[in-house]
Amino acid sequence: MKLKELAEKLGLKFRGDPETEIERVASLESADKKCVSFFTNPRLLKKLLTTKAGAVIISEKDCPKDVDFAAIFSEDPAESFRQAMIILNPPKKTEPTISELAFIADEAEIGKDVRIEPFVVIGKSKIGDRCVIHAGVVIGDGVEIGHDCEIYPNVVIYDGVTIGNRVIIHAGAVIGSDGFGYTRDKNGRFNKIPQLGSVIIEDDVEIGANTTIDRATLDNTIIGAGTKIDNLVQIGHNVIIGKHCSISGQAGIAGSTKIGDRVMIGGQAGISDHIELGDDVTIYAQSGVDKSFPSGITLFGSPARRARETLKQLAALKKLPEIIDKLTKKQNKSS
């Protein structure tokens, strides 16, 4: 693809030879003359000045005036680069087919142009149009899956789960397993509480590999529209997660917690049960959230507190050995 053609597809202005061939995307350091890269971080200026990329997507304000290289100008280079990735690497077209090695209940409703690969098991459930269900997926009874979903190998979807449109579920995820609910009798033995609720996954959600989302005890565990969940995340029963949240790998959310919209949860963060977090909350990695917090704040630490407060405590803690040493020396002198 020519540089001019790529810029036109992106709807952006450019400078440089319009006939430059662009075939691939790459980072600034690994790019060659047939690659397009992007620049957003001033700390990477040295890499920008030494890149061999055929073109760089960059904002006009960040573009060095005294260096002549081919550029595509964008107010949001990262987003434009994402679009360029799709243009230069279009999604593979999958042929609609239902494998003879799939096991599908007679009562199942299968939509149009669906691809179902070998060793898939589908119970008395409903699958929407243009879905792709990869090998080894197990879908129980009473499941409803919307249109244009892709479910990767060895995903297990338990009975009664509802999944919206354009949902992506990566390999090994388990949706609708029993919540961790027990009573304990006078002899200290645990007795299982039936988990009679279900899980609702709304439109445009992406769920990472080996993530688990437990069904509710009575109502529904809900994942809001547009939310993105990384690999190895555990979401407990009765949890309600709002729209357009981001949950990084190895985070854990305990049962009956309610999370607002646009919340960002860092890797390995732990969130306690029966608490509420407002909209637009940010939680740093490895934080332990043990109580409810209102909208719009940033949390850090274990137990998690406002990030500024935790950072002050850590700064003071760093000085503690020196203070103790001074006090010890002073005490020794006085004695």
Task: Give a concise summary.
This protein is of the alpha/beta class. The protein is built from 4 helices and 38 strands. It is 16% helix and 27% strand.
Overview of the molecule:
The chain has 335 residues and is of the alpha/beta class. The chain folds into 2 domains: 3-88, Udp-n-acetylmuramoylalanyl-d-glutamate--2,6- Diaminopimelate Ligase, Chain: A, domain 1 (3-Layer(aba) Sandwich), CATH 3.40.1390.10; 97-307, Hexapeptide repeat proteins (UDP N-Acetylglucosamine Acyltransferase, domain 1, 3 Solenoid), CATH 2.160.10.10. It is built from 4 helices and 38 strands. It has a 12-stranded mixed beta sheet, covered by helices on one side. A 10-stranded parallel beta sheet has the order 7-10-13-16-19-24-27-30-33-36, with no helix packed on it. The protein has a 9-stranded parallel beta sheet with strand order 8-11-14-17-22-25-28-31-34, with no helix packed on it. The relative contact order is 0.06. The model has no long low-confidence stretch (mean pLDDT 96).
Give a quick set of tags describing it.
335 residues, alpha/beta, Udp-n-acetylmuramoylalanyl-d-glutamate--2,6- Diaminopimelate Ligase, Chain: A, domain 1, UDP N-Acetylglucosamine Acyltransferase, domain 1, 2 domains, ten-stranded parallel β-sheet, 4 helices, 16% helix, flat
